[in-house]
């Protein structure tokens, strides 16, 4: 089932020296239950495109429809709370919160009572493969792989079924890299998530259901 439809989207921004056309007339769609990988050289527009899907920026032209709604014309704060979650290479966990508290956070800001938030956060951490002995540890006490699995658990807890991952394995070793990709594939295939990942790693790209390539802001499907 089609979840996201991108129609003739372009986006540009002004840096110190020039106007950068980061995304140029991109048209594509993303379905539930699939893992998509976007590859391309640095500066090709991958991360900018992901930020548009996340509702962090609005297209200069064209539109992005999620479940039939143009996200530029909706409450984008609510969209990011309820429908989409982003995972980054740098994890972006709250350093003064434990693993459990990090995952409880999106549940609590939606108004969920503390006991229920704790129960659901524990279930999300277990689903993401985080050992219970880590629930009370702070991010700096955890390995990179453990932190990234915690970040995935927090994304699951957000409740949205669109998961955007910007180089999520870029700072991990090969063993943890494989575990994170296995987890993302599982969320897509078994839980009907729409997972869209930006990566430079060709081995990861080979495991995707659909491979897309960006070059000079334009998107093509890899054959």
From TrEMBL:
Transmembrane segments: none
Residue span(s) of domain ABC transporter: 4-223
GO cellular component, one term: plasma membrane
Gene3D superfamilies xref list: P-loop containing nucleotide triphosphate hydrolases
SMART domains: AAA
Alphabetical list of Pfam families matching this protein: ABC_tran
Presence of the UniProt keyword DNA repair in the record: no
Keyword terms: ATP-binding, Nucleotide-binding, Transport
Molecular function as annotated in GO: ATP binding; ATP hydrolysis activity; transmembrane transporter activity
Protein name according to UniProt: ABC transporter ATP-binding protein
Organism: Candidatus Mediterraneibacter caccavium
